[in-house]
Protein backbone atom coordinates (compact mmCIF):
# COMPACT_ATOMS: atom_id res chain seq x y z
CA UNK A 1 0.00 0.00 0.00
CA UNK A 2 2.76 2.45 0.92
CA UNK A 3 4.49 1.95 -2.46
CA UNK A 4 1.23 2.58 -4.32
CA UNK A 5 0.59 5.69 -2.25
CA UNK A 6 4.10 7.03 -2.97
CA UNK A 7 3.72 6.34 -6.68
CA UNK A 8 0.40 8.21 -6.80
CA UNK A 9 1.87 11.15 -4.89
CA UNK A 10 4.80 11.42 -7.31
CA UNK A 11 2.69 11.03 -10.45
CA UNK A 12 -0.13 13.32 -9.27
CA UNK A 13 1.26 15.71 -6.64
CA UNK A 14 -1.73 18.07 -6.90
CA UNK A 15 -4.17 15.44 -5.53
CA UNK A 16 -4.51 14.67 -1.83
CA UNK A 17 -4.52 10.88 -1.79
CA UNK A 18 -6.29 9.00 1.03
CA UNK A 19 -4.33 6.33 2.87
CA UNK A 20 -7.19 3.82 3.30
CA UNK A 21 -7.79 1.37 0.45
CA UNK A 22 -11.57 1.87 0.38
CA UNK A 23 -11.31 5.65 0.07
CA UNK A 24 -8.50 5.32 -2.47
CA UNK A 25 -10.50 2.82 -4.53
CA UNK A 26 -13.60 5.08 -4.48
CA UNK A 27 -11.55 8.11 -5.50
CA UNK A 28 -9.88 6.28 -8.39
CA UNK A 29 -13.14 4.67 -9.49
CA UNK A 30 -14.71 8.13 -9.85
CA UNK A 31 -11.84 9.52 -11.92
CA UNK A 32 -12.26 9.85 -15.65
CA UNK A 33 -9.89 10.59 -18.48
CA UNK A 34 -10.94 13.51 -20.61
CA UNK A 35 -10.15 12.49 -24.17
CA UNK A 36 -10.04 15.10 -26.91
CA UNK A 37 -9.52 14.05 -30.49
CA UNK A 38 -7.95 16.52 -32.89
CA UNK A 39 -7.17 15.84 -36.52
CA UNK A 40 -3.57 16.77 -37.26
CA UNK A 41 -2.26 17.13 -40.78
CA UNK A 42 1.05 18.41 -42.05
CA UNK A 43 0.60 20.84 -44.93
CA UNK A 44 3.43 21.56 -47.33
CA UNK A 45 5.02 24.98 -47.20
CA UNK A 46 5.18 26.97 -50.46
CA UNK A 47 8.16 26.57 -52.81
CA UNK A 48 11.42 27.95 -51.38
CA UNK A 49 10.02 27.87 -47.82
CA UNK A 50 10.72 25.51 -44.92
CA UNK A 51 8.42 24.56 -42.09
CA UNK A 52 9.34 24.11 -38.42
CA UNK A 53 7.13 22.07 -36.11
CA UNK A 54 8.10 22.42 -32.45
CA UNK A 55 6.85 21.21 -29.09
CA UNK A 56 7.76 21.77 -25.48
CA UNK A 57 6.82 19.70 -22.47
CA UNK A 58 6.99 19.75 -18.69
CA UNK A 59 7.04 16.91 -16.18
CA UNK A 60 4.74 18.51 -13.65
CA UNK A 61 4.06 22.19 -14.05
CA UNK A 62 6.39 23.76 -13.14
CA UNK A 63 8.95 20.99 -13.35
CA UNK A 64 11.62 19.52 -15.58
CA UNK A 65 11.13 20.87 -19.12
CA UNK A 66 12.36 19.97 -22.57
CA UNK A 67 11.92 21.02 -26.18
CA UNK A 68 12.11 19.50 -29.62
CA UNK A 69 11.31 20.15 -33.21
CA UNK A 70 11.76 19.27 -36.83
CA UNK A 71 12.52 21.37 -39.90
CA UNK A 72 11.34 20.07 -43.27
CA UNK A 73 11.33 21.29 -46.86
CA UNK A 74 8.32 21.56 -49.17
CA UNK A 75 8.50 17.81 -49.90
CA UNK A 76 8.44 16.91 -46.22
CA UNK A 77 12.09 15.84 -46.31
CA UNK A 78 14.02 16.20 -43.07
CA UNK A 79 16.43 19.11 -42.89
CA UNK A 80 17.09 19.01 -39.16
CA UNK A 81 15.57 17.58 -35.98
CA UNK A 82 16.42 18.55 -32.42
CA UNK A 83 15.53 17.67 -28.85
CA UNK A 84 17.03 19.09 -25.68
CA UNK A 85 16.44 19.28 -21.94
CA UNK A 86 15.87 22.82 -20.66
CA UNK A 87 16.14 22.41 -16.89
CA UNK A 88 13.32 23.65 -14.65
CA UNK A 89 10.35 25.72 -15.76
CA UNK A 90 6.76 25.68 -16.95
CA UNK A 91 5.09 24.08 -19.95
CA UNK A 92 4.65 27.54 -21.48
CA UNK A 93 8.37 28.27 -21.11
CA UNK A 94 9.13 24.97 -22.84
CA UNK A 95 6.80 25.81 -25.75
CA UNK A 96 8.39 29.21 -26.27
CA UNK A 97 11.95 27.85 -25.95
CA UNK A 98 11.17 25.15 -28.52
CA UNK A 99 10.00 27.79 -31.01
CA UNK A 100 13.06 29.98 -30.34
CA UNK A 101 15.41 27.01 -30.81
CA UNK A 102 13.74 26.06 -34.11
CA UNK A 103 13.93 29.59 -35.44
CA UNK A 104 17.56 29.89 -34.30
CA UNK A 105 18.45 26.76 -36.26
CA UNK A 106 16.79 28.27 -39.36
CA UNK A 107 18.84 31.45 -38.97
CA UNK A 108 22.03 29.39 -38.55
CA UNK A 109 21.18 27.38 -41.66
CA UNK A 110 20.43 30.62 -43.55
CA UNK A 111 16.74 29.95 -44.20
CA UNK A 112 14.83 33.21 -44.40
CA UNK A 113 11.45 31.91 -45.57
CA UNK A 114 10.15 30.00 -42.57
CA UNK A 115 6.74 28.86 -41.36
CA UNK A 116 6.58 28.01 -37.65
CA UNK A 117 3.88 25.64 -36.40
CA UNK A 118 3.36 24.98 -32.70
CA UNK A 119 0.68 23.22 -30.70
CA UNK A 120 0.76 25.74 -27.86
CA UNK A 121 -2.47 27.52 -27.07
CA UNK A 122 -0.62 30.61 -25.88
CA UNK A 123 -1.41 33.79 -27.76
CA UNK A 124 1.80 35.11 -29.35
Automatic annotation (TrEMBL):
Domain RNase H type-1, which positions? 46-124
> Which SUPFAM superfamilies does the UniProt entry name for this protein?
Ribonuclease H-like
Write out the GO MF terms.
nucleic acid binding; RNA-DNA hybrid ribonuclease activity
Write down the superkingdom of origin: Eukaryota
Protein's name in the database? RNase H type-1 domain-containing protein
Amino acid sequence: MLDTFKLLQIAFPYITWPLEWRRLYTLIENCFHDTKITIVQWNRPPDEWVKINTDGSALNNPGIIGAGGIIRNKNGELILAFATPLGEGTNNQAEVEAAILGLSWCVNLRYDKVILEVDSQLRW
